[in-house]
């Protein structure tokens, strides 16, 4: 195995600052959503993805891919949201093995109520900390980092 290309000082600083900023932002946004709406940032994200899906429903496998979490972690999130009446599971009518996660009206209402808190937090803790040139530079730099496509969008039910 080839020796790794170790990070030099500016590379290490950029990497560590990125990790620090990400952790701090996630921590603050999570605390604000929990305090104001009884939702974790992870739960908010699930509700937001479902709200953007046709009919507020999405296959769990697709939801896990978009959230970048394991299927088992997503199952636990959906379990918590389902117990609180925000999401329901629905069997696929043409595939007995498949299922959907479906946003309930209560979940949509909670998401709508929490969205202003989330946006205020994103603005206060991130956007307003940078000037326009910094935001544009950051967006351009981060767009160069490869990402995985959103995944299968066939619409079938099997997960």
Layout of secondary structure:
Elements: H1 9-37, H2 41-52, E1 57-58, H3 60-67, H4 71-83, E2 87-92, E3 95-103, H5 105-125, H6 132-143
Antiparallel strand pairs: 1-3, 2-3
Helix pairs in contact: 1-5, 2-5, 3-4
Describe this structure as you would to a colleague.
- It is a single chain.
- The two termini are 36 Å apart.
- This protein has a single domain (17-138), classed as Arc Repressor Mutant, subunit A (Orthogonal Bundle).
- Residues 150-155 have low confidence and may be disordered.
- It has 6 helices and 3 strands, in the order ααβααββαα.
- With 159 residues, the chain is mainly α.
- It has helices spanning 9-37, 41-52, 60-67, 71-83, 105-125, 132-143, and strands at residues 57-58, 87-92, 95-103.
- The longest helix is centred in the first third of the chain and has 29 residues, at 9-37.
Core attributes:
159 residues; mainly alpha; Arc Repressor Mutant, subunit A; 6 helices; 3-stranded antiparallel β-sheet; 3 strands
Whole-number average pLDDT? 91
Shape: globular
Total individual domains: 1
CATH topology: Arc Repressor Mutant, subunit A
Distance between the termini: 36 Å
The largest beta-sheet arranges its strands as 1-3-2
- Secondary structure tally, helices: 6
- CATH architectural category: Orthogonal Bundle
For CATH, the homologous superfamily is named as Winged helix-like DNA-binding domain superfamily/Winged helix DNA-binding domain
Structural class: mainly alpha
Tally the beta strands. 3
